Structure formats: C-alpha cells, structure tokens
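Posting this for the archive.
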Amino acid sequence: MSLSWSHALLMVEKYDEMLDFYTDVLGFEVTDAGELGENKVCFMSQGANDHHQVAIVSGKPPGSPPPAINHFAFRTESLAEVKGWYQRLSADDRVDGLGPVTHGNAWSVYFKDPDGNGIEVFCDTPWHVSQPVVDSWNPQADDDSIMSATKEKFSSDPEFQPIEDYYAARKAHLASRGI
C-alpha cells in the first residue's frame, strides 16, 4: 500500500486576497466554491484529474501565525518553466520573499502567499544529490550555464548520480518490501 499527494486545505485570514493570489498569481482555477457553516470555502486546481490541489477556507483568526508547515511545493515540467515563474513572480508586488534555491536535485523559487505560507515552485534536475542541500542559482542565466553550474557544484557529492538510477534503486527497494 502506498500514498500519493493529493491536496492541501488552508485555513485563511485574508480569504479574498488568498483567492486572488492562488488564481491570478499562481494560475489555479476555481473548481467549486461555497459556504461551509459560517465560512467560505474555495477549491482550486490546475490538473485535469484533480478536483482540487489547493483549497482555502475562511475563518482563521486575525493575526494568527501561519501553520507549522514550512512550505507547499508545486512541480513544473522544466527549468524554462521555473525561470518563467521567477520572472512572473518577480514582477508581481503581491509576492513576498522571492528567492531562487537549488538543492542539486531541483531548481526552485521560494516565496510567501498573503497569509505568510511558504510556497516552492520547482523542477527536478537530472541528478540525485544527498540532502539537505541549499544553494543559490541564477534564474537569469541560460539553461546550459545553469545545468553546468549545478553539475559542477554537486558532482563531488558521494551520492551524485543520474536521477533515473536513483529511482530504479528506490523502485527495487520498495518492491523488496512488497510496496
């Protein structure tokens, strides 16, 4: 038996700002919305096979701290998409704390939503690198330069290998456990 990630439900203080942020800034579409008791709830998705990937519900008390979750991560298909997100997010004054980070196995941009929740938009690199690793990268550079710089930074890691080899080993390990 295994689990796969489905969705997150956020209790929010700034419902209208959060709805605008997730739909206008991040491009989610509202799939359903309504009232849940005294609170408003909105379900949003970017996937054809997911009714919702993110949902928000009003009712978080004003001034409450964000939840104890560090961030929510959204995968993109390519480095070009991450760079596009960086450009788009850089130009939007609703985005706070934007920063490019590489973990060797991913190129990411991190930022905060209007309620202070951390968000990561990333794509995988072609390599596995042992974690935790945090370094910067230049989203303004061309793809070849980014690939070369990342490989150079992390190729001395003892676990550095093509991601396909890492996933094949994980698949074999899970199969040996009956998963």
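The longest helix spans residues 163-176. Residues 8-60 form a domain with the 2,3-Dihydroxybiphenyl 1,2-Dioxygenase; domain 1 fold (CATH 3.10.180.10).
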